[in-house]
């Protein structure tokens, strides 16, 4: 009978999703300037790479915190206005960051680019776009969540050339203007109110306040989910944050290092569509399990590869492996918990994701500063990735047991 009810999905749904992707790929471009210019910025503070790495870490933590706060605001005023406000704050954060390390860089990145900027764009966009879909929600979430990957595929090579020609400060100012030109008109024209959801878009199982999930207390399962998304993002961040500097240490030119980041994240963008389609078929938890195994293998290969061609290959394999983990986790939350709880569960998961990215990038810099090379950082990332695989395996096993007893 539910098949007779209308679907919220229309051609406009995919237009909205594509515009949201463009907005997010532009917003997430801002912190990549610091990644590409990591050695340049570190040179101003006695070569300490942990300082620019910490600025990048603050963006991820701030984005997660801002997602919870700005998600509530988006429910009241609409996502259009939080996206416009976020774009203005990102531009302000870039301008402030040009005043240099460390305090202006930290405040500009953590508060303005993170909390008030990308925080007003990222989590609200997940909730907003999910309301335009009820049949291919997993694919839609995979598409928009690829914005950070598309940013990494597009911008580093461009930033490397601008930084070489004009310096990292001027690159930030140029990009501040560019992202305002892209995001503000897109939000004004396209990001209007979502459609009203028919009854079939609601979860089929009844909402039970004192229910169990996978045979366990609901918040225990959610805590394991939060642990899974944190531990997947710690190792995920290490190559993304330090690959350009790692290549430079091996004698590979910064141009090729930036191109390697583009290959890594370009592969992540393309393969995330595969993982999204897979999650629509097998569910979020099993997709997470496969992605975790692939990420662990890919990160391990960074420890075994030193030549340029090999690193390009490993970067592509790593990008394929990790790309499905975050949207699959979010989809799993929608599958396991009532839709009425999504407004706080999704931003909380994204906060844990951002915190994991922050810790991974920062710890990678700390371990480099202590040991003088990146092998210990990548080895630590492999260890955390194994923990991630064990957490997801536990949840997937409980899921299979629950289905077998149903």
Task: Give an overview in words.
The protein is mainly alpha-helical and 406 residues long. The protein has one domain: MFS general substrate transporter like domains (Growth Hormone, Chain: A, Up-down Bundle). It is built from 17 helices and no strands. It has helices spanning 11-27, 32-36, 38-42, 50-77, 79-97, 103-117, 122-130, 137-145, 147-166, 168-190, 218-249, 254-282, 284-302, 308-322, 325-336, 342-371, 375-405.
Specify the CATH homologous superfamily.
Answer: MFS general substrate transporter like domains
Q: Strand-and-helix sequence, N→C?
A: HHHHHHHHHHHHHHHHH
Q: How confident overall, as mean pLDDT? A: 89
Number of helices: 17
List low-pLDDT spans.
200-210
The total of beta strands comes to: 0
Helix content: over 70%
Task: Give me the oligomer status.
Answer: single chain
User: In the CATH classification, which architecture applies?
Assistant: Up-down Bundle
Topology:
Blueprint: H1 11-27, H2 32-36, H3 38-42, H4 50-77, H5 79-97, H6 103-117, H7 122-130, H8 137-145, H9 147-166, H10 168-190, H11 218-249, H12 254-282, H13 284-302, H14 308-322, H15 325-336, H16 342-371, H17 375-405
Helix pairs in contact: 1-8, 1-9, 1-10, 4-5, 4-6, 4-7, 4-16, 5-6, 5-10, 7-8, 7-16, 8-12, 8-15, 9-10, 9-12, 11-12, 11-13, 11-15, 11-16, 11-17, 12-13, 12-14, 13-14, 13-15, 13-17, 15-16, 16-17
């Amino acid at each position: 009978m539910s098949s007779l009810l209308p679907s919220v999905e229309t051609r406009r749904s995919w237009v909205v999703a594509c515009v949201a992707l463009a907005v997010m790929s532009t917003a997430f471009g801002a912190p990549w300037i610091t990644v590409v210019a990591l050695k340049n910025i570190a040179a101003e503070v006695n070569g300490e790479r942990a300082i620019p790495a910490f600025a990048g870490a603050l963006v991820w933590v701030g984005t997660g915190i801002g997602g919870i706060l700005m998600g509530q605001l988006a429910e009241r005023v609409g996502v259009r206005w939080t996206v416009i406000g976020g774009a203005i704050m990102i531009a302000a954060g870039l301008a402030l960051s040009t005043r240099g390390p460390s305090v202006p860089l930290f405040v500009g990145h953590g508060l303005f680019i993170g909390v008030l900027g990308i925080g007003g764009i990222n989590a609200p966009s997940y909730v907003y776009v999910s309301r335009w879909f009820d049949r291919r929600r997993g694919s839609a979430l995979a598409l928009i969540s690829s914005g950070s990957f598309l940013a990494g595929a597009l911008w580093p090579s461009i930033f490397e050339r601008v930084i070489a020609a004009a310096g990292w400060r001027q690159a930030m100012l140029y990009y501040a203007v560019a992202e305002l030109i892209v995001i503000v008109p897109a939000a004004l024209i396209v990001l209007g109110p979502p459609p009203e959801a028919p009854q079939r878009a609601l979860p089929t199982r009844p909402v039970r306040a004192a229910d169990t999930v996978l045979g366990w207390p609901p918040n225990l399962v959610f805590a394991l989910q939060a642990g899974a998304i944190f531990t997947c993002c710690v190792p995920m961040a290490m190559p993304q944050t330090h690959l350009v500097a790692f290549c430079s240490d091996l004698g590979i030119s910064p141009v090729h290092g930036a191109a390697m980041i583009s290959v890594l994240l370009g592969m992540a963008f393309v393969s995330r569509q595969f993982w999204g389609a897979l999650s629509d078929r097998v569910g979020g938890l099993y997709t997470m399990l496969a992605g975790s195994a692939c990420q662990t293998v890919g990160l391990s290969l960074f420890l075994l590869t030193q030549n340029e061609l090999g690193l390009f290959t490993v970067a592509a394999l790593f990008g394929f492996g990790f790309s499905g983990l975050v949207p699959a986790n979010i989809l799993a939350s929608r599958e396991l918990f009532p839709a009425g709880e999504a407004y706080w569960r999704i931003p909380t998961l994204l906060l844990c994701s951002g915190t994991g990215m922050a810790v991974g990038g920062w710890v990678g810099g700390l371990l480099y500063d202590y040991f003088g090379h990146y092998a210990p950082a990548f080895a630590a990332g492999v260890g955390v990735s194994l923990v991630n695989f064990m957490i997801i395996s536990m949840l997937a096993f409980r899921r299979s047991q629950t289905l077998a007893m149903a």
